[in-house]
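A quick aside before the break. I want you to see a complete sequence-to-structure record at least once, exactly as it would be stored in a machine-readable document. Don't worry about memorizing anything.
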Amino acid sequence: MKNLYSHFCWLMLTGTFLFSCNKNKELPMIYIDTPINELVKEALAGDTNAYFQLSNIYYDSPNESFLRTSLLMANKYSYHQAYIDVYYCLTDLPHKKKYTELDDLDVRTRELALVYLKDAVNAGNKEAMEILGHYLIEGKYVPKDVKYGNELLNIVSR
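That is the input. The structure line, written in tokens, reads:
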């Protein structure tokens, strides 16, 4: 009888677990309970944690509001992540139309994006180092410099 009871409990526990899991529900990367306007206010005061939360909110869909916040965090606080986020905002916003290259940007926007990419590299952002490293090796968007491009890629791979 005890063996039957343990099998029944195991079956109930397994069934409850399997049927209570919603496999189609996507969970957010980070639970954020602070209103976005409050996060923006805190980020503009130099709070990098608030900025990080905002960057997670806008990760898949940067917009003009996040671009303004990123510009201010980069220019006022020299925050390395904000530099690369400015680059992504400037390059990704037009790419929502399935563009894949910086060639599709107007010249001024591309030059501004590259300025912020280089600022991110100078601030030590490895993501930016990888992007710029490839551009330098290919000679695309920047003068070709294979040596410096490889140096950047070596830093990233360490």
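Two observations worth writing down. The chain has eight helices and no strands. The mean pLDDT is 79. We'll return to this after the break.
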